[in-house]
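[09:14] KT: can someone run the structure on this one? pasting the chain below
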Amino acid sequence: MIFSALVGVAVTLTLAAPARADTADQAKIQTVLDLQATPHTLDQAHPSAAVSGKVTDQATGNPVPNAPVNLGANGGSVNATAVTDQAGEFTATYTVNTRPYVDDSAHTVSAYVYETDEFLPSDSKVVVFTVNTTPTRLTLTADRSKADYGQPIKLSGTLTASGAAVSGKTVTITPSPDYPASCNVYDTAPVTASVRSDGTFSTTVKPRCGVLSYTASLTAQGWYEQASATTGGTRIRQAVDIQIGPAITKDGNVNVSGSIHERYAFGSFKGRTILLQYSPGSYAKASGKWTTKKTLKIQYDNSFHYSFPHFNQSGYWRAQIAASGNTLAATSPVKKAWRWNTHFAGVKLSTKKTTFRHKLTIGGQLIRSVATNHGNSYKQIGFAKQRVQIGFTCNNRKNVWYTDNGWVTTDSHGRFKKTIRAYCTGKMFVIYWGGSDTYRTDSKNLPITVKG
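[09:31] RB: done, C-alpha cells below
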C-alpha cells in the first residue's frame, strides 16, 4: 500500500503537465522543407535563378499545403514569403545585386517554416550560388616618351570585356613619379576619363617635372571586374628660370649678375654657357637688336656675374641659355640699367692770366637729360641744386690734382659761379660726381697762367 501511494505521487508530479504539452505538439505537423535552385551559377547574362521548394509531413511524407514559408537572401534579393500550394510546393526568384562586389560574402538563399498552431518549425538547407563576374581589360598609351614642360601629353586607351567594347565607365589615371628624382614637386593628382561608346577613352596632362609613368585603373563596377594598365615612363624636359640684375654705376661701369635654376627641380648648371645680351632703347622700353656682349660659364652655385668697365650706355639687359637634354632654352626677364647723361656747358674762367693768390671766378652750367613723351624722347635741362667740385692741377705736378677751392651748388637753372684763388700755372676744371640716376661728368680743362 505504501509503494502504490509513492508511485501515485510520482505520476501526479512529473507526468501530468508534460502529458498535456505532448498532446498539443502531437496535434501539429512536423514539417520538412526542401529547397532547390536552377541554375546554381549566375553571370551578367543570367543574373537570376528560379528557387523552388517543397514542404512535407515528416511522419507521413505527404505534401503540406498552405504552409507559410519565409525566404532570406544574401548578396541579392528574393521573394520574402511564400505559401505552399496543394502539392506542398512554392516558387521564388533570386536576383543578384547589380553590383556583385558590394558584398564579398557568398550569394545564398535559405528558407524556413514558421511555427504556427498547425505546423512545427523547420529550416531548409542553404542554397549557395556561384556568381561569375566579367573580366575586363584595359590598355593605356602615352603619345610620347619625352615632352617639354607645359607641353600636353595625350593618354589614350581602351576598355573591353570578353573582346567587346565596354562603355559608360569612368577610368582613373594616376601618374607615378620615378623615385628618386631631382624634382621638388610631383604631379601625382589623378585625372579621370569617360569611356566612349566604342570602348575608347583619352585625356591630356601637362606634367611639370621628372620621369612619370601613368596607370589607368577601373574599380570593380557592377558585373565588371577591376583592371589596370600602365604606360612606360615619359621624361619631362624641365623649365628654367633666370634672374638677372644689371646695375650701372655713376662712372659708367655696368655690373650684371644673376642666377639660374630649374623651375621644379634641383639641377646644377655649373659650367654651362650663358649669354649676356644688351639692347639700347628709350627710357620706356628696349628697341633695336639684341647684341651678345659676353659669354660666361655659370658658377658652382648656379650664379653668374660680369662687370663691363666704362660701358657708359644706358639700356636693357637679358640673359639666355640654350636647351639641353634635360632642360628647355630660357631667356630671363628684360631688366633696365639706366642713368641720364650730364655735361657741363659754358665753363670758363674770368681770366686766363693772373698772379699768385690773386682771385678769379670760374662759372658755367650743369646740364642733364630727362625723359619726355612718356619716356620715348629726351630733352636737356639745367640740373638744379647739385654739388659741383672745383679742382686744379699744376704743370710741375701733372699727376696730382687739388680740390682746395672746394664746392659750389648749382642754382635753379643749373648754373654755378665761384670765386677762387690762383696758386700755380696749370689747368682748372669742374667735376660733377653723379647722382642716383645720373652719370658723373667732368668739364674740359681750362688753362691758367700764374706769375709770382
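[09:33] KT: thanks! Residues 29 and 119 are 5 Å apart (CA to CA).
[09:34] RB: yep, looked fine to me
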